[in-house]
UniProtKB/TrEMBL annotation:
GO terms for molecular function: metal ion binding; metallodipeptidase activity. The lineage of its organism: Eukaryota, Fungi, Dikarya, Ascomycota, Saccharomycotina. Mn(2+) 1 binds at D139, E174, H452. It comes from Saccharomycodes ludwigii. This is Probable Cys-Gly metallodipeptidase DUG1. Its cofactor is Mn(2+). Residues 215-373 form the Peptidase M20 dimerisation domain. Keywords: Hydrolase, Manganese, Metal-binding, Metalloprotease, Protease.
Length: 480
């Protein structure tokens, strides 16, 4: 009886050890998008490999993915390794199912001056509120370590793990999972040959109270526009008015992409979006979510929609275009009178069924070239794809989802909502296709965890209960 699973008590007992493990991992600033921090990403891979070894995982391999392809400043920059390892083995007497656990150990950039209350790479535990803070606690270091902790709990409870595990932990997810597709395809009939299913814990509940299981993701195509003019930044008093300013060109192109109401202005994208079906129309009402919960999570009342249905549809099943930032532009405090000589504007499009990724790239590049040509600017202009990752959608009633729903009900006492996710995990579809299996998304954190934002957090209760769900999920999946 899994609700009496002694491993659950062991998880409670080992809470201080599990919090310490997370604290140690958070201290390594493994920011994949910052080339200067690449050694730290590699350091975190070694940290995890050691933890895996100490916990009895074997056949641990740090897979080299070679050099990072352009656009990149350092053309010799090596990609961080993918960590493959096994727990348990299939011999003739021991025919257990095998679950591949995917997670990522890299994190988004974070600086204290972005507005964090504490140093982002110094783990902070709010003892009173029982909330842990630090870059990566919820995305995705906490959930990734959850699996290691569960193995430790099984071992220390004297219980055999009911399944075999294979880990695939990458260090480039926040930068488009570059290089991982190829590795998965290569290893499909080798390291991954016995995999029965894939489980990913790398997204969040929709709100703050109700657990969810996730059966869909949006994709993400990330672009950059580079505009070059003067060979260095200039004094705007001396040169303003007589030079073509890259930043002015960029603002024109960026504003042409999307309206303030979120409507994408690039011709041809809307037409690729799958129409809403009657079955789909009915799912939104049943989901436990409110406009107030959205406002709470964003910390303001600036939602574009005032009802649950529209919010969910625009988060899950419609594309969105976000403008992320401008490299080379002045952004510090004060009033610097400068004309930036070169600027790089960054934006991405979250993709949904049935957007064709390659067709989208062409539409984006054609649109940007056309708008820039209309400016008749003497500056140089280039739009390029930085990375892409496909959307994904699956059947939420297969064996893996059923096992996870049972495990969730054991711990939280309610059936989880079945949700889609507005974010992206680029590798999900590759696992499904290359390993010819299904993928379950089993989120640990809450919708207000502030992943990618300041003061990223994970409630201690979500960390602990998330591991209890994992522990029972392994058991239920093994029984089926
Ligand atoms: C949902 C997941 N935890 C996540 O944050 N994914 C990132 C992946 C990504 C895609 N391009 C860059 N990063 C996301 O959705 O932004
Ligand atoms: Zn992320
Ligand atoms: Zn993530």
């Amino acid at each position: 009886m899994a609700s009496n699973n002694p491993v659950l008590n062991k998880i409670e007992e080992l809470k201080p050890t599990f919090i310490k493990r997370l604290s140690d991992a958070i201290a390594i600033p493994a920011v994949s998008g910052d080339e200067s921090l690449r050694p730290k990403v590699v350091e975190k891979a070694h940290f995890l490999a050691k933890q895996l070894k100490d916990l009895g995982f074997h056949d641990i391999q740090l897979k080299d993915l070679g050099v990072q392809p352009p656009p990149v400043s350092d053309s010799n920059l090596k990609l961080p390794p993918v960590i493959l390892s096994r727990y348990g083995n299939n011999d003739s007497k021991n025919k257990k199912k095998t679950i591949l656990i995917y997670g990522h150990y890299d994190v988004q950039p974070a600086l204290k001056e972005d507005g964090w209350d504490t140093e982002p790479f110094t783990f902070y535990l709010d003892e009173e509120k029982q909330i842990m803070r630090g870059r990566g606690v919820t995305d995705d270091t906490g959930p990734l370590l959850g699996w290691l902790n569960v193995v430790q709990a099984y071992r220390e409870a004297g219980k055999e793990l009911p399944v075999n595990l294979i880990t695939c932990f990458e260090g480039m997810e926040e930068s488009g999972s570059i290089g991982l597709d190829k590795l998965i395809i290569e290893e499909a009939d080798k390291y991954f040959k016995d995999v029965d299913t894939v489980c990913i814990s790398d997204n969040y509940w929709l709100g703050t109270k109700k657990p969810v299981l996730t059966y869909g993701l949006r994709g993400c195509n990330y672009y950059q526009i580079t505009i070059k003019g003067p060979k260095a930044d200039l004094h705007s008093g001396v040169f303003g008015g007589c030079v073509a300013e890259p930043m002015i060109d960029l603002v024109h192109v960026l504003q042409s992409l999307v309206k303030p109401n979120g409507e994408i202005q690039i011709a041809g994208i809307k037409e690729m979006v799958a129409p809403v079906t009657e079955t789909e129309n009915q799912i939104y009402e049943k989901i436990d979510f409110s406009v107030e919960e959205l406002n709470q999570a964003i910390g303001s009342k600036t939602s574009l929609y005032d009802n649950k249905r529209d919010i969910l549809m625009h988060r899950w099943r419609y594309p969105s275009l976000s403008i992320h930032g401008v490299e080379g532009a002045f952004y510090g405090p004060g009033a610097k009178t400068v004309i930036p000589g070169q600027v790089i504007g960054k934006f991405s499009i979250r993709t949904v069924p049935d957007i064709d990724s390659k067709k989208l790239d062409q539409l984006v590049i054609d649109h940007c070239n056309k708008v820039f040509a209309e400016l008749k600017s003497p500056n140089t202009f280039k739009t390029e794809l930085v990375h892409d990752g496909n959307y994904w959608i699956t059947d939420p009633f297969n064996k893996s989802f059923t096992a996870a729903a049972r495990a969730t009900k054991d711990i939280y006492g309610v059936e989880p909502d079945l949700t889609r996710e507005g974010g992206s995990i680029p590798i999900t579809l590759t696992f499904e296709k290359a390993l010819k299996t299904n993928v379950l998304l089993l989120p640990m954190g809450r919708g207000d965890d502030a992943a990618h934002s300041i003061n990223e957090k994970l409630d201690v209760s979500n960390y602990i209960n998330g591991m209890k769900i994992m522990a029972n999920y392994l058991l239920y999946y093994s029984e089926d």
